[in-house]
Design brief:
Blueprint lengths: L2 H7 L5 H11 L2 H9 L7 H7 L3 H11 L2 E4 L7 H4 L7 E6 L6 E5 L6 H16 L3 E4 L5 H11 L4 E4 L13 H9 L3 E4 L11 H11 L3 E4 L7 H12 L3 E3 L7 H11 L3 E2 L3 H15 L10
Parallel strand pairs: 3-4, 3-7, 4-5, 5-6, 7-8, 8-9
Antiparallel strand pairs: 1-2, 2-6
Amino acid sequence: MSEARIQLAFGGLSPTRVDRLVERYVTYERIVTAITRRRVRVTDRMREMIGVDAQMRVRQLDDLGVDLVFADMPGFSQRLLSYEGHPRWLFNRGVGSLQPSLGIVGTRSCTAYGLELAEMYGRVTAQAGWSVVSGLARGIDGAAHRGAVSGGGHCHVVLGSGVDVIYPASHRGLYHMILDAGGMISSEFPPGTPPEAWRFPTRNRIIAGCSDVLLVVEAGVKGGALITARIALDYGVPVYAVPGDVDRATSVGTNLLIRDGAFPVLGPEDLAEVLDLLAPIYCPPDAEVVDA
């Protein structure tokens, strides 16, 4: 494993910035040299992080129980690899799964009805033998994860912070329940990375790319859920949405998705039927849980 690649992974740079650096310098060794010798403009903190010895980083990851998996390694998500612009690496804590995956996303500012639905959808997904992919955010994400755990299922959480930085902090208990239930926490950003706004749209492409199918429960006309849905559509991932009242702000996004071609889901039993029909398409033969 390239030591320079490990060092760069700890820099916390945006994925597009890393792509530009690779295009310019070709090798990770030359990128790290250019950054540490101040030929590339980055923050002092980023330069300091990248300058730390790679073997020290490996020991830190071992202490945290975190795996750093690069795109050319066997443990990297095969779903993500099929999409242009996939992350070059992921920090993972926990266990991955070869089950088919349903991404469940929606607004943080959801209704009580949306929360109830998301939790039921998460439980139905788990009972159907699918993994739930989401972002641990307040609202729909957290409810879907809770439902999946209560249904005895697997969750894959993708964070816009480091895998050891629980955001929101109120989901600390849920975070540990997911890990205790055999789930996985992933991030493109190194441990210790705080949740900053610009990191979440890049996180959303990973949620879309790790999902065989995406379900949007409640969403306004703007927000991360619609970003994730648009990315999923660009990737060719089937998108489903829950219809709602035409004058309700949290239903505007889902109704627009359905108008533009997303498949409607009309309740937990409807979702169960959809997952049952799609399982033969997305479930690989002899599927089993594997370390990610």
